[in-house]
Design a protein that fits this description.
single chain; mainly beta; four-stranded antiparallel beta sheet; 11 strands; about 0% helix
Length: about 120
């Protein structure tokens, strides 16, 4: 499956952005999906994940209550709504797919989008 992420940009602290990820394959609906991010000088980390049907989700503690992941299998898209953004959310965000129905482990993700830059100014 090929993934195309979009929606990044520059926003002031406290603002919102919505990231979207479109999958090329109709089989995407059977895949768990995740959003990762990598800040300069830091390792890539899992921000949020959703199961194949959206019934199970994961959020890193740093984004709980501010970010919401959702998916529309009919359209083959996964979104990440980011509210109350903070400067520490600044990073390149990647959407990814795993052949598992759900995963919180980066090494189980095997398809990656190109990344979209999110910059939050203070």
């Amino acid at each position: 499956v090929q993934l195309q992420a979009s929606g990044g940009g520059l926003v002031q602290a406290g603002g919102s952005l919505r990231l979207s990820c479109a999958a090329s394959s109709r089989s995407q609906k059977w895949y768990g999906m995740g959003w990762f991010r990598q800040a300069p000088g830091k390792d890539r980390e899992l921000v949020s994940a959703t199961s194949w049907n959206g019934g199970r989700t994961y959020y890193d503690d740093s984004v709980k209550g501010r970010f919401t992941i959702s998916r529309d299998n009919a359209k083959g898209t996964v979104s990440l709504q980011m509210n109350s953004l903070k400067p520490e959310d600044t990073a390149v965000y990647y959407c990814s797919a795993t052949r598992r129905l759900y995963s919180e482990y980066e090494n189980e993700y095997n398809a990656w989008g190109q990344g979209t830059q999110v910059t939050v100014s203070s």
